[in-house]
Amino acid sequence: MSDDLAVIGLGYVGMPLAQEAVRAGLGVVGLDTSPAVVEGLTAGRSHVDDLSDADLAEMLRGGFRATSDASVLSGAAAVVICVPTPLSEEGGPDLRAVEAAVDAVAQHLHRGQLVVLESTTAPGTTDTLVRSRLEATGLVVGEDVHLAFSPERIDPGNAVHRFRNTPKVVGGSTPACAERAQALYGRLVDEVVVARSTREAEMSKLLENTYRHVNIALVNETAKFCHELGIDIWDVVRCASTKPFGFQAFRPGPGVGGHCIPIDPTYLSSAVRAQLGYPFRSVELAQEINQSMPGYVARRVQDLLNDRSRAARGAKVLLVGTTYKADVADQRESPALGLAAALLALGADVAHHDPLVPTLRVRDVVVPHHDDLLEAASSADVVVLLQPHSRLDLPALCRAARTVLDTSGRAPAAASVVRL
């Protein structure tokens, strides 16, 4: 069987891509190394927040199929690699999943095939690691096969900016490669932006997330000294946001989490140190500030307890919303992990409530989960609101709780509420 597109990696990036390709009338096959993922998708069960079971049913009716058999790559006109690139122990991207995916593609590479890497990585990866492994087959990139990089721009939980209406950046190893990639994505999105090469496309992804990382660090550090000065940082941001030019609002929080902001800028600073020999100081400082926030929130909890002559040791602290983002069932790099660890180190009796992910594991400790939010809140010494999921009844929570430390700025004004 031949397919227009094979998507390697059926997670939060690969599935929206496959969905839009099916909607565009392409024949799509998805490849994943996880039997559980393949079995679930085949049975019509979506494991991705932004893709409902009904969405998946529509894809299956459109001919989409999932498999763990890499031989399907030999029949695909185009292959897009969407596998994860977590941090390695050295601080750069862990490319083992990319290497495995590229090796699988190389084993089934054929003339005329387009290969696109979407996995976030350091500049130069596409034209060194990926290209060398493809050309080891004897086929030449730009002549026999085509190679490009297109950074993923998936924002889980965003109901406005979806795959189709978010501009897609593509960079080719050669102009002919860029043209092939542009033609593919031109069928899937409203606007394709062509970069000068793969390196500019790779760098654009890192710059996007570094921009967010640095500005979040700016407002997080500002929040700390605003608290000491008795200034309401949330009102400061609200007022500054009324300026119609030259300002974009970023808000403080308990730290940064997810698949991009805590990780992608580190790829860049690691590459700068390795290739140029000096630090990317603004990124490293931002990392230091943002990583300090869970510990800062723990100290704020301790201060609230001290105000009531209550020690942290033995105090009941309830964490509410432990995913990295509101209305997204994903705990990757969630600040809740660092906060729970800090509170446990202080001797606090920590529990949590999250309607999306009922399990919170900190190293070898499983933090108890309470199904009844209001009952748990009423018995807690301090409730820490981390992610204000839409399923949470925040007014009821604030009425039930003795003290709520609101790190999200979303809790209603109440006598029990203290903002970060």
Share in β-strands: 5-15%
The helix/strand class is alpha/beta
Q: What name does CATH use for the topology of the largest domain? A: Rossmann fold
CATH superfamily of the largest domain: NAD(P)-binding Rossmann-like Domain
Envelope shape:
globular
Number of helices: 13
What is the domain tally?
2
Q: Numbering strands along the chain, what is their spatial order in the largest sheet?
A: 3-2-1-4-5-6-7-8
Report the top-level CATH class of the largest domain.
Alpha Beta
| Order of helix and strand elements from N to C terminus | EHEHHEEHEHEEHEHHHHEHEEEHEHEE
* Uncertain parts: none
Q: Termini separation (Å)?
A: 57 Å
Task: Describe the 3D structure.
With 420 residues, the protein is α/β, with parallel strands linked by helices. The protein folds into two domains: 3-196, NAD(P)-binding Rossmann-like Domain (Rossmann fold); 233-419, Rossmann fold. It contains 13 helices and 15 strands. The strands form three sheets. An eight-stranded mixed sheet has the order 3-2-1-4-5-6-7-8, sandwiched between helices. It has a five-stranded parallel sheet with strand order 10-9-13-14-15, sandwiched between helices. α1 (14-23) links the parallel β1 and β2 (28-31). α7 crosses α9 and α7 (198-229) packs parallel to α10. The longest helix has 32 residues, at 198-229.
